[in-house]
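Run: sequence + magnesium ion -> complex structure.
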Amino acid sequence: MRIGFGYDAHRLDIGRKCVLCGVEIPSSFGPDGHSDADVPIHALMDAMLGAAALGDIGNYFPNSDKRWEMADSDELLKEIYRLVLKSGYTLGNADVTIVLESPRLSPYIEQMRIRLSEALGVDIGRISVKATTEEKMGFTGAGTGVSAMAVVLLEE
Ligand code: MG
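>> structure
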């Protein structure tokens, strides 16, 4: 078994779509970035790559590469999981935490789990998504950004 950890954070900007774990959240602002800036999926991909010791997402989807501009993170996740499978591992389980002051994510958590499990082709029982705030502290608390952490267990 192999364990991996991933972290990502993006600035929040007015007028950006708010797509987290592939689910569009109704909001007047969303994470800014080169791709669709799906912060928890970026953290999840890095956790997978970390567990397999395959580098990080910057190696596969560089910011400088026009191909990944506004890329759908679902598709990037599928691509990363293909690499993981090719290196001889399958997903044991994944646990993702999103840190966002507002909007409240609890109504969307199940949809996010479904979306991730479908993208990866794994049972939903292997996928956990959680959300928290930082009680008005720091950049997430001030509403200037969103961050996410993920841990992944891979099985040979
Ligand atoms: Mg990112």
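>> summary
The chain has one domain: 2-155. The chain is about 30% helix and 30% strand.
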